[in-house]
C-alpha cells in the first residue's frame, strides 16, 4: 500500500548513497556471472576477435589462466566454446565425439588446475563441428533432422561429461534432447552432472559475432529458423521451458538477453526455477560500439544491463563482460 503525498515521498529514500544501497531490491555480485570463453589450438595463442572487441580465442594453456583469473574474481562458472580447425569439420560433426577434441582438452586442463573450485559449463550443439555450420545433421532435403541429431548430441554430452564437464548446456533446440541426454548421463553414472537447457533460444540477429568467434560464419547457409524460436512467441517459450523441466533440466536459459527480458520474467514467475539469461555476442558488441562512439560509458552500461537481468528474476547471466563486471563489483 502506497500512502499519499506529502506523507509519502518516494524520493526520501533516494536522497543519499547509503540509503539507496540499503533500499536496493536486487544485488549483482560476481557469483551471478558465467564467463563464456572461446578455445583454439596451439600454445600461448591469443587471437582477438574483430567483431567482439576485447574478446579473444585462447589456447588451452591460456584458457586455464582465464579460469584462474575467474576464480580470483569470484566468478563461479565458465562456458566453453571451441574454434574447431576447418579441416576437422565434417557434414556429420563427428569431431564432437572425439574424446581428444579441443573442448575435452580444455575441460580436462581447467579441472586439473582448478578442480571443484570452478564450474565448467559446456555447449552441446554441432555447429562448431559441422561443415555447414548448422547445429544438427542436415538431411537430403536440407532440413535439420531432429531425432538423428539428438542421437549425436547424446554422444557429445557423454564425451564432455567424461572429460569432466560440470554442466551440460544444450543450445541446439532439438525436441526431446534434454530427456535423452539426462537418461544417458544417468545410465553412465554421471548423476551429478547438471543440465542447463537453452530452453527458450530465439532465431536471433544478435549471434553474428559468436559465429565469427567459433568460425561458423562463412559456412552457414540460410538460417536456423526451423529449430530456434520465432522472436514473436512468448507462450511457446513457456511450453519449451515446461517440457525441458519435465525432461530433467536443472535450470533453464533464455537467449538472447535484454531483448527477451519479458521472457525471463515470465518464466521465473510461472515456474519458480533457476533461470539464466545469455547476454549474447551482438549485445556485447552493441555496448562496445556505443562506448567507441562516445554514446555511453562502459562501466555504467555493463553494470546496469547485468542488474536488469537480476531484477527480471534471473539467477545469473552469461556475459562476455563477466571479468570486467566482476572487477568493478569487487572494487
Ligand atoms: C550455437 C550457439 C550460438 C550461440 C551459443 N551457442 C549461436 C547460434 O545459435 O548460431 C550464440 C552466443 C552468442 O551470440 O554470444 N549452438
Give a verbal description of the structure.
By secondary structure, the chain is α/β, with parallel strands linked by helices. It has a domain at 28-253: TIM Barrel. It contains 11 helices and 10 strands. It has helices spanning 17-23, 60-73, 102-114, 146-163, 177-187, 208-214, 235-246, 261-271, 281-292, 298-312, 322-330, and strands at 33-40, 46-48, 56-59, 77-82, 119-124, 167-170, 194-201, 251-255, 275-279, 316-319. Strands 1-4-5-6-7-8-9-10 form an 8-stranded parallel barrel, surrounded by 9 helices. α8 links the parallel β8 (251-255) and β9. The longest helix is centred in the middle third of the chain and has 18 residues, at 146-163. The chain is globular, with a radius of gyration of 20 Å. The two termini are 37 Å apart. The model has no long low-confidence stretch (mean pLDDT 97). The structure holds ligand PBG. Ligand PBG is lined by residues 123, 125, 127, 135, 171-172, 207, 210-211, 224, 280-281.
Amino acid at each position: 500500500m502506497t500512502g499519499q503525498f506529502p506523507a509519502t515521498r518516494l524520493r526520501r529514500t533516494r536522497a543519499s548513497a547509503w540509503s539507496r544501497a540499503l533500499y536496493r531490491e536486487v544485488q549483482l555480485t560476481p557469483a551471478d556471472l558465467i564467463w563464456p570463453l572461446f578455445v583454439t589450438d596451439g600454445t600461448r595463442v591469443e587471437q582477438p576477435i574483430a567483431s567482439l572487441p576485447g574478446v579473444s580465442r585462447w589456447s588451452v594453456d591460456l584458457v586455464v589462466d582465464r579460469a584462474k583469473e575467474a576464480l580470483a574474481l569470484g566468478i563461479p562458472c565458465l562456458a566453453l566454446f571451441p574454434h574447431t580447425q576447418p579441416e576437422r569439420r565434417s557434414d556429420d560433426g563427428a569431431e564432437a565425439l572425439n574424446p581428444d577434441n579441443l573442448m575435452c582438452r580444455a575441460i580436462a586442463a581447467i579441472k586439473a588446475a582448478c578442480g571443484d573450485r570452478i564450474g565448467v559449463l559446456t555447449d552441446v550443439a554441432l555447429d562448431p563441428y559441422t561443415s555447414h555450420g548448422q547445429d544438427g545433421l542436415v538431411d537430403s532435403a536440407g532440413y535439420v533432422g531432429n531425432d538423428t541429431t539428438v542421437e549425436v548430441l547424446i554422444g557429445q554430452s557423454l564425451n564432455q561429461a567424461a572429460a569432466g564437464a560440470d554442466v551440460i548446456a544444450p543450445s541446439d533446440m532439438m525436441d526431446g534432447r534434454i530427456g535423452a541426454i539426462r537418461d544417458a548421463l544417468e545410465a553412465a553414472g554421471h548423476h551429478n552432472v547438471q543440465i542447463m537447457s537453452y530452453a527458450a533460444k530465439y532465431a536471433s540477429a544478435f549471434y553474428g559475432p559468436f559465429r565469427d568467434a567459433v568460425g561458423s560464419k562463412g559456412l552457414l547457409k540460410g538460417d536456423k529458423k526451423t529449430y530456434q524460436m520465432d522472436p514473436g512467441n512468448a507462450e511457446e517459450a513457456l511450453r519449451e521451458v515446461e517440457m525441458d523441466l519435465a525432461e530433467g533440466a536443472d535450470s533453464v536459459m533464455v537467449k538472447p538477453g535484454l531483448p527477451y527480458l519479458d521472457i525471463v520474467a515470465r518464466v521465473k514467475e510461472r515456474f519458480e526455477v533457476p533461470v539464466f539469461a545469455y547476454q549474447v555476442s551482438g549485445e556485447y558488441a552493441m555496448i562496445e560500439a556505443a562506448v567507441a562512439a562516445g554514446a555511453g560509458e562502459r562501466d555504467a552500461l555493463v553494470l546496469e544491463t547485468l542488474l536488469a537481468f537480476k531484477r527480471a528474476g534471473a539467477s545469473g547471466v552469461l556475459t562476455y563482460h563477466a571479468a570486467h563486471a566482476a572487477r568493478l563489483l569487487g572494487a
